[in-house]
Amino acid sequence: MTLQAIVTPPAVAAIALVATLQSAQAQDFSDRKIELKAGLTGVFFDETATVSIGGVEVPGGDARIDDNVTAIFEVGYFFRPDISVWLGLGLPTTTSLYGAGSLEAFGHLGDVTYGAPSLTLRYHFNTDGRVSPYIGAGAVYGLILDEEDGALADVSVDNGWGTVLVAGVDYAIDDRWGAFAEIKKSWLETETGFTAPTGAGPVAGGSKLTLDPVTVTLGVSYRF
Question: Would you say 25 and 175 are in contact if contact means Cβ atoms under 8 Å apart?
Answer without folding.
Answer: yes
